[in-house]
Write a structure and sequence with these properties.
- The chain starts with a helix and ends with a helix.
- It is elongated, with a radius of gyration of 14 Å.
- By secondary structure, it is mainly alpha-helical.
- It has three helices and no strands.
Length: 83
Amino acid sequence: MLARDYVERELSHIQRMVALLDSETIADDVSMSGAARVRHPSYWRRRIEELLSTPDVPRHLRKLGETVLAKIDEMESRYVAMK
């Protein structure tokens, strides 16, 4: 139960951070307030993959993780297209 709660909290946090990062990317805002935010989508991808490798992750959390990974894929594709 504790592991599932941890995974759920972490995925929720990551989902919010990815949404924030995505909104900054769309606005083309290169400034960062606070050193705690990580701008590289690959960082968040690694964290999600690590969480999803936890044994017995419930289906709804796995789906949430996969949804956020898809959002990260979109962000990375958009970044590559902008270069």
